Amino acid sequence: QVQLVESGGGLVQAGGSLRLSCAASGTILKINGMGWYRQAPGKQRELVATIFDGGITNYAGFVKGRFTISRGNAKNTVYLQMNSLNPEDTAVYHCYANYLDGLGVQKDYWGQGTQVIVSS
Question: Which residue, 7, 20, 107, 117, shows the most beta carbons closer than 10 Å to its own?
Fold first, then answer.
């Protein structure tokens, strides 16, 4: 019912920066919040950052001030500015949305993901 289109991943040297973008579309009554999760090989998917209505943000501890999450003016977009990247950040980054579907049911959804590779 929802589509999340992600972009911005790629290969970057340690210490570099990337900006991830995501746009949501589909049968959605309301998007309550969006964010980013990541999954490295052999690891469980983990939260990176989320931002909900009112600008309430939640960051994983490993971010350590390096990442900044924001929502676009369109309200169906979310960005993740990633600075000071290190090889431990290498993972597939999945856009996340918490939304009300066409029936008003609250749901969580993760996109296909965009690959981030940080080389040393």
Answer: 20
